[in-house]
């Protein structure tokens, strides 16, 4: 496989989100032959089996189709109360439904950004636990925790910390290698 198309999403709806900013940085740091489309999870409604029974909402169908079409996923998660935020879990819950879940077997890169000293590690490990049930293939290494995020991005949301940029480039490289394998 030459071209690797990655679909990215962040578990934050915040305009100035560091996790969304990290995905924008990833778009600048992609290895050759890779692309990264970032989707917004805001249009996805709260999961409700009654809603599902009427047919999946358009925003969910679109999200699932984009996952199906991607070679890999890149998830950037904040940490909310030591776990992944509901917006991310909700989107993954919708995508997990049915025998035709587009998540199954998909390679997933994971990173987290938090304003705290652990960089969202606890959220990330909860997410990795969820990945077992989703039957995705999370990239194990390199792990990526953007600690003290407010110091690593400028006021326009640009990732300015060189070590973090290099680390993100390594993560993307490893993700692409894993997909090609
Ligand atoms: C409801 C809530 C709970 C949070 N809990 C944690 C936490 O447990 N650990 C942590 O490091 N940061 C926590 N934070 C701070 C977030 O890491 C910080 O707001 C981060 O910037 C959110 O990600 P975003 O910039 O992508 O929106 C919490 C923030 C919110 C809003």
Q: What's the quick description here?
A:
The protein is of the alpha/beta class. 40% of the residues lie in helices and 17% in strands.
Write up what this structure looks like.
40% of the residues lie in helices and 17% in strands. With 181 residues, it is of the alpha/beta class. The protein has a single domain (4-180), classed as Flavodoxin domain (Rossmann fold, 3-Layer(aba) Sandwich), CATH 3.40.50. Strands 1, 2, 3, 4, 5 and 6 form a six-stranded parallel β-sheet that branches. The chain starts with a strand and ends with a helix. The model has no long low-confidence stretch (mean pLDDT 98). Flavin mononucleotide binds at residues 12, 14, 17-19, 78-82, 113-116, 118, 120, 149.
Q: What is the H/E order?
A: EHEHHEHEHEEH
Total of domains? 1
Structural class: alpha/beta
Largest sheet descriptor? 6 strands, parallel
H/I helix tally: 6
The name CATH uses for the topology is Rossmann fold
- Give the terminus-to-terminus CA distance: 9 Å
Net shape: globular
Low-confidence stretches: none
Fraction of residues in helices?
Answer: 25-40%
Q: Which molecules are bound in this entry?
A: flavin mononucleotide
Rg, Å, rounded: 15 Å
Give the integer mean of the pLDDT values: 98
Count the strands?
A: 6
How much strand? 15-25%
What is the second-level CATH architecture?
3-Layer(aba) Sandwich
CATH superfamily, called what?
A: Flavodoxin domain
Keywords:
binds flavin mononucleotide, 17% strand, alpha/beta, 181 residues, globular, 6-stranded parallel sheet, Rossmann fold
Would you spell out the secondary-structure blueprint of this structure?
Layout: E1 4-10, H1 18-28, E2 34-39, H2 49-53, H3 58-69, E3 72-77, H4 86-96, E4 107-113, H5 121-134, E5 137-138, E6 145-146, H6 162-180
Parallel strand pairs: 1-2, 1-3, 3-4, 4-5, 4-6
């Amino acid at each position: 496989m030459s071209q690797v198309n990655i679909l990215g999403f962040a578990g934050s709806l915040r305009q100035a989100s560091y996790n969304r900013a990290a995905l924008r940085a990833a778009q600048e740091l992609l290895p050759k032959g890779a692309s990264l489309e970032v989707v917004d999870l805001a249009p996805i409604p709260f999961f409700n089996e009654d809603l599902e029974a009427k047919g999946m909402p358009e925003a969910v169908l679109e999200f699932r189709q984009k996952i199906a079409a991607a070679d890999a996923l890149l998830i950037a998660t904040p940490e909310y109360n030591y776990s992944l935020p509901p917006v991310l879990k909700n989107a993954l819950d919708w995508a997990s439904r049915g025998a035709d879940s587009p998540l199954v077997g998909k390679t997933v890169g994971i990173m987290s950004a938090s304003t705290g000293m652990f960089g969202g590690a606890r959220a990330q490990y909860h997410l990795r636990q969820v990945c077992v049930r989703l039957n995705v293939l999370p990239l194990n290494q390199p792990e990526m925790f953007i600690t003290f995020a407010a110091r690593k991005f400028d006021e326009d949301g640009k990732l300015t910390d060189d070590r973090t940029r290099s680390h993100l480039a390594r993560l993307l490289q490893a993700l692409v290698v894993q997909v090609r394998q």
